[in-house]
Fold these 4 entries.
Entry 1:
Amino acid sequence: MFCSNNGIRRSPSSSANIINLASLLLLAIIFMSGKMVFCDDTTPIPTDAGGVNGWFSTNVKPAADRKGGLDPTLAAAEESPQVIKVRKDGSGDFSKISDAINSIPSGNTKRVIIWIGAGEYVEKIKIEAAKPFITFYGSPDAMPTISYSGTAYQYGTVDSASLIVDSDYFMAANIIIKNSAPKPDGVTKGAQAAALRISGTKAAFYKVRMIGFQDTLCDDKGYHFYKDCYIEGTVDFIFGRAKSLYVNTQLHVLGDTGMTVITAQARDTTTEDCGYSFVHGQITGVGTGAYLGRAWMASPRVIFSYTTMSSVINPAGWYNNMKPERDYVRRMFTLQNTSVLALEQIHLGV
């Protein structure tokens, strides 16, 4: 299991390149196999943040070393990956990300790495369910930005996202995903604006920055893994009913004149097998009084373990969404001196 009743700290405030790229991505591939991601109680994530990468390296081996343990479909897909270059200056295979995706046939069975050059790509992108095994990769030294200004008024909340991924086995590394719509003013109808919606299963995100205000990340459904990411927003900026693990991920709250809430996890019954687990992360931001989550649906499940929290967080932790009958979910967050304890447990093994 990834976490149990662990305390949370609170603080004040070219070719060779392609080969290296493939090696990096192979390391991440195992994120998407439940068997590889799951860690039992004999080797839990360490309490010391400094030990996380060592734990990760020990428990999460490159796909090349774990062929016998991977999902056979995934293992076959990784045998001969294809690389497509997208460059704004026209020096790549395509100058638009959407064109690169359109070049991939439906029913694709091989990993396709879309290597995206620096710059801002103003596109609304959707990867259909029939196109699995797609990777978005950007240089860590020149991270590209996917940006669009779609709103809920135009598309509906979940379809307002700048990037929508309905396919399985998606990966992204070193990418900025942004919704550039204005900050909701509390008056304008349908001002919510998602940056990313991930609805396919067995997805992994590494050093991805997600930028928006209300509803930044629709962590919609499926099994998802996030490591070393950054997510910012105002209200419900991580929402949905996926089953996701966030490791060493920074959540940045943007101060608001109204209510600020990080999570709106959408589990509606106690039998639904979904929830969010945040381990060794950091909560930063401006303003005060932000809630860790709210009871958007009847039985949300959210756990924070070994997470540093600035004074931006309301000590109450949880908001019942003006539904007193949902007050029982407060059991998930208990304030004891300077520690917040997660009183439920979550398993993310497939």
Entry 2:
Amino acid sequence: MAAAAPGALGALQVSRARLVAACSARLGPGLRLSGSLAGRQIGPAIWAQGWAPSARGPTPSRGYSSEVKTEDELRVRHLEDENRGIVVLGINRAYGRNSLSKNLIKMLSKAVDALKSDKKVRTVIIRSEVPGIFCAGADLKERAKMNSNEVGPFVSKIRAVINDIANLPVPTIAAIDGLALGGGLELALACDIRVAASSAKMGLVETKLAIIPGGGGTQRLPRAIGMSLAKELIFSARVLDGQEAKAVGLISHVLEQNQEGDAAYRKALDLAREFLPQGPVAMRVAKLAINQGMEVDLVTGLAIEEACYAQTIPTKDRLEGLLAFKEKRPPRYKGE
């Protein structure tokens, strides 16, 4: 969405109206804007609210709601007990270095679709269950067998799944404990937060194959680290380790790898636990306000914030938060 031109009041109002409408469309059925932004009922909900898978590698896990078959390329686990509300998507395709195959993309798409309608999900973590690898990008062996007419549609499917992950209404965290190249890094870039082990390797290396990033990398990397540096990394196909990635702002946290090989995942889990006590509606609306606001000018962004803030006012959670503060006790939010 384009920002309104400075000084053009009419264009600004039109732009603002469109953006607020887009913002509203994600807030859920029956909700209405207030004040000067009123007059338009909010469309169908596109928000995801619950889910929960988890994986802790070799460390014994507790509270898993279900077990999965070892041959599954994507393990979806809903954490329980004190981690209830956290869902872990574990990529488990060791023989293909966790590369994005047709089957893995199909499984990711199915899992993300389920998350969109799950009202119990509070945070999603994407990790690898294969030591030393997050995701090596597209499955080039499979790609080599495709004819030219198949490549475009398949890349479109990858892009659509990555976009769906980016548009999930709950916080998403990529735990990069190993190699994340090409589409693997694009998958991580779609997440709200990225954490990595210092030994991890990351890069958009597509130009080495005479192509360009096709899963959102040319757009999300500049937004994450700035245009000039993003161009340098894409043009050179350079690969960064965890410390270098942290220095340029590609990741939020870098950790020394542990014996189990899941240092980034453990940090992601710690972050997810920090998010759990907060109001579910507030978390969703905050993510929407930030995402939409970053694409527009400040004036329009503030209008989006106003529209989003208005959605928290009539909620039961807001009243519960005030009551809990008054009674000096932890709030018991229900996402209502």
Entry 3:
Amino acid sequence: MSGAIVVGVGPGIGLAVARRFVREGMSAGLIARSDATVKAAAAELGNADVLSVTADVTDEPGLRAALDRVVEAYGVPEVVVYNAALIQPDRIGDLSAQQHLDALAVNVVGAITTAAHLAPAMAERGSGSFLITGGMPASKPEYASLSLGKAGVRTVVSLLDQQYGAAGLHAASVTVSGGVAPGSVWDPDEIANHYWRLHTQTPAEWMHEVII
């Protein structure tokens, strides 16, 4: 089975999603900004076939190089999960223009870079899933930059579907409505099951957003 790539593989959803996919026999490319974070994730996955790579999603050449390393190791991925986000409380007026751009770079532009680098080859093959971790089903004034970013995620999914859906690429988001914590309504392992279900849907079943 072809591999998965998880961009933003921190200890919550990212790790849980990687665990869910490798449990199905897939290899996994794990990408995170921190070397310690990505190595810890790999250690949690035990003997699974994983490749750990560090990259900052706001560094386009670095992110593209990291994606290339995974493709060189495992081939064009069957599923890509973009899970990077800058989660911070802020209201309109709290951030400078540059700070808003910095948040957008993580929350949206990194996903665009990842898709631009991988989606054409996935579409050429005629199969695969590009899944993005969403959130904020309704905008919240106390999380302005994140609300804007998650609205952007929905648009990215729609654009990818329009551009590549007919070629077989399933674009979707998993919108998480609250704080992720084991044993809660938003348990990361339960959330990870939604990614697997989206990935295994047939084109006739495709959903483009799951809200949990």
Entry 4:
Amino acid sequence: MRRARPSNSRASRGFTLIEVLIAMVLLVAGLALAFATLGAATRTAARGEAMADRSERMRAVEGFMRTRLTGARPIAFDIDQTRAIAVRFIGERERMRFVADIPDYLGRGGPYLHDFRIEDAGDGARVTLALSMVQAGKTVEERDPRPPEMLVDGLREVRFRYRALDEDGRLGDWLDEWKATEQLPLLVEVTMIDRDGAAWPPLVVSLPLAPAFSAFALPVQTQ
């Protein structure tokens, strides 16, 4: 009579509790590492997307303002009654007005008064633009005026400054107010800081028609 072969004792016992616990610890550690890697990748992607959105926003706003300013023309849009002179550019720290042509898709084309304003948005500042048609040295009241367009919001600080030649024909200091309203400044600076304190690249724009117009028509501004 043949004796039955004893079965493998370890196989009959299965896994011990310690082995199961070790396997569970390894599984949990692996899952934690996977989730941490996924979370880091998600945060990195979100930061990259936010930076791309911010850069695109900067390029769009600064590109639009640069195009409008470089297109500024020495066209009068009002009369200064106290000095009996035409008003062609009004520049203040928080407001800027000048005439430039606009493309047809923004209106009916032709010269329009561009009125850039820095406004209080409650939790910060914003920049708006209002457009008014100019004819014969005056703004035209439209039947259905277009409300101001918001260019950018979520800002902590915005500032406009202006620069011209001094009496010696050299660039003068930056001015918070442009007093020679009968002529265009040579340079306009727009400074913007986001609500979180991140500063935009300084926008300094040269007005191409300012030097020629000032040279044959008007004296340059002095402080």
